[in-house]
């Protein structure tokens, strides 16, 4: 299990390329592609997914993701905000690349963390940021408490982020995306035992693994049926068989979150 991506974890494109060719040497074949950020994903842009926000430190180093749900409100993970203050974080929209300087940088005037959040395996992994200035990007609608059918096992869920290419790997410079099927509660309980709290979490991933969020993707969106339905939260390793990604089950928190968004 891993928590917030260490901010020093940025590697250069050259280092990433070197690692990829080393992987080719080690596996003895180039036919098997190196693991891709959002493991198994493809590159995309902030233009294609304008609601995806970088959560950065005050020097604009991305460490988590977030979702724009109104011009001044961003939903992210509670575990991303632990130890942060309104002056230590920024929200960056419209920036496809971690090393970009374009887009819109907003300061944060309020950080709401679920009041009973303690750790990712105890649930409540949700936070809402209030921006000091508006983001000129299209927001994503978020689920209401009655949208629970979206989580039906096998539903197609989209994941997005700048996270690592593999467990313990390096972050992606470019935004990436993939789709993964949601997993039933019984199956996810089978994977994680009592660490999976069905009321607060939902799992997504293939039985055989291969596609997943990873470190640095936390706080970012799980989109189902055109709505923000989950928040990237945790998992054992990344993209491993039998260990799907675990996402905050947003329907459980939608009224609490709505109060923050409408305040
Ligand atoms: N906790 C990680 C983060 O802070 C996200 C891990 C997601 N892991 C997974 N296997 N889906 O970025």
How would you describe the overall organization of this protein?
Belongs to the peptidase S1 family. It comes from Streptomyces lonegramiae. Keywords: Disulfide bond, Hydrolase, Protease, Serine protease, Signal. Pfam families: Trypsin. With 263 residues, this protein is α+β, with helices and mostly antiparallel strands. It has one domain: Trypsin-like serine proteases (Thrombin, subunit H), CATH 2.40.10. The protein is 15% helix and 29% strand. The protein has 4 helices and 13 strands. The strands form 2 sheets. A 6-stranded antiparallel barrel has the order 8-9-10-13-12-11. It has a 6-stranded antiparallel barrel with strand order 2-3-4-7-6-5. The N terminus is likely disordered. The site of arginine (ARG) has 17 residues, from β12.
Instruction: Average the pLDDT over all residues and give the rounded result.
Output: 89
Fraction of residues in helix: 10-25%
Encode the helix/strand succession as letters: HEEEEHEEEEEHEEEEH
Distance between the termini: 34 Å
List each distinct ligand once.
arginine
What is the CATH class name? Mainly Beta
CATH topology: Thrombin, subunit H
Q: Indicate the low-confidence ranges by residue numbers.
A: 1-37
- The share of residues in extended strands comes to 25-35%
> Main sheet, how many strands, which sense, barrel?
6 strands, antiparallel, barrel
Shape: globular
Tally of helical segments: 4
Q: For this structure, what is the CATH homologous superfamily?
A: Trypsin-like serine proteases
Radius of gyration: 17 Å
Order of strands in the sheet with most strands:
8-9-10-13-12-11
Sheet/helix structural class: alpha+beta
Give the number of DSSP strands.
13
CATH architecture field: Beta Barrel
């Amino acid at each position: 299990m891993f928590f917030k991506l260490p901010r020093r974890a940025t590697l250069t494109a050259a280092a990433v390329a070197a690692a990829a060719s080393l992987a080719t040497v080690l596996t003895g074949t180039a036919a098997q592609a190196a693991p891709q950020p959002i493991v198994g994903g493809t590159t995309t842009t902030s233009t294609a997914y304008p609601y995806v926000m970088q959560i950065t430190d005050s020097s604009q180093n991305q460490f988590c993701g977030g979702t724009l749900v109104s011009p001044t409100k961003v939903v992210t993970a509670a575990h991303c905000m632990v130890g942060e203050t309104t002056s230590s974080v920024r929200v960056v929209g419209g920036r496809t690349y971690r090393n970009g300087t374009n887009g819109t940088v907003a300061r944060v005037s309020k950080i709401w963390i679920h009041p009973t959040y303690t750790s990712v395996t105890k649930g409540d992994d949700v936070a809402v940021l209030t921006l000091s200035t508006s983001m000129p990007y299209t927001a994503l609608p978020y689920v209401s408490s009655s949208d629970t059918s979206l989580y039906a096992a096998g539903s197609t869920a989209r994941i997005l982020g700048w996270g690592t290419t593999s467990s313990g790997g390096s972050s992606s410079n470019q935004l990436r995306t993939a789709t993964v099927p949601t997993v039933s509660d019984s199956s996810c309980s089978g994977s994680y035992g009592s660490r999976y709290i069905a009321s607060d979490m939902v799992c997504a991933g293939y039985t055989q693994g291969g596609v997943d969020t990873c470190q640095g993707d936390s706080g970012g969106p799980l989109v189902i049926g055109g709505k923000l339905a989950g928040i990237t939260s945790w998992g054992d390793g990344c993209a491993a068989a039998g260990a799907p990604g675990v996402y905050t089950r947003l329907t459980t928190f939608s009224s609490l979150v709505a109060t923050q968004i409408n305040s």
